[in-house]
Each structure stands twice: as C-alpha cells, then as structure tokens.
Amino acid sequence: MIQQGRDVTDVAGVAQLAGTSLATWRRNRHADFVKVVRPMPFSKKPVLYDVQQATAYLAGKPVPALETDPEPQPGDLLTDAEVAEVAGISASTVRDEAADGRMHSGIEKAGRRFWTRAVAEARRDRPAEERRYRGRTPGSKNRTPRERPTDERAAEVAAELAAAERGDREPVTVAELAERYGVSERTAERTMVRARELAG
Fold it and tell me: Looking at the domain assignment, is residue 86 inside a domain?
C-alpha cells in the first residue's frame, strides 16, 4: 500500500532525484542507499521506494519512517492483491474487471498499477446482482460496454478529487470523465456533482 499523500519511485527515479545517471547511481551510491531506505514491502518487480524517504536521504536529512499500522484513507493506493482483500474477490478478478471496464482501470506508478481504497470499497459494497457480469444477450449486436453503477463511479471520482486537492494529480475535468466512462458530458457532470457530495 502507498499511504495517502505519499508517492513511490523506482531506482531510475531515485537516480534522477540524485541528478545522476542510473549506471552511476548503481555503481557508486545504491548499496549505501538501500541500507537506509528499504524497498516498499509489496514491491518486487519493479522494486519501489518511498519518494519522501529517498528525498530526505539525498538531502542528508533524517529519513521519515513509514507508519506501520496507518489509519485507512480513501486515497491510499492498493495493489491488486490488496484490493482483492478489501473487496472479497481474487486479484485476477480485480485485473479482469479493470481491463473490461467494470472497475476503474487504476493508476500507474513506476510501471505498476494501483487502485484507491475508495475504489476497492466501492467494489466491495456493490450489490451482488451488479457484481455478476452476465455478458450480452445472445445475438445482440450492441458492442457498448455495460454501464457501471453511478455510485461506484462517484466514489472513484471523489477519491481523485481529493488527490487533485492535495496536488497529487491534475484537476479532474468533466471531459476526462466523459471519455473515461464513455458517457455524455451531461452524465459526467452529474457524476462530478455526486462525487463532490461524497467528498464533502
């Protein structure tokens, strides 16, 4: 999990923060770096590091510890396995639903995909009859993907509005939502209004 308000990067990103090439970083500084800044527990390929810890190390400042048992926040970024645990489904179902549009496609960080806790909880709370993908009616020529429940979309957008407010992403726009969900801008506006209500 990436705690809300924090970010991660891979070794190439650390080298960039240090203002050096990746080869030079690996040769001269990486061994000392990993003695102090440990990889994120969930990361293997690619190995990821906390940006705040890396930045503090490079500045010669005390490295801030990660919280060992943080209070869950809607903007926490979860791996597919962590989403699966929250939602009560398998990690493969998370990936499948993200790929076919039944769930948010996720946020990419250093080559790995994450989902907000808000998305995971929305998937968990989705009514059972809406969780089952029934496919299209035999003989149907309508190739339009099934719409996802508006409340789920609103929860996803609410988390992204919060991220934008923190400066973790660009402002959320109606045009972006319309394109993402394949809806009209009018429908996207209604989703935005509902998301703002959820965000408080």
Answer: yes
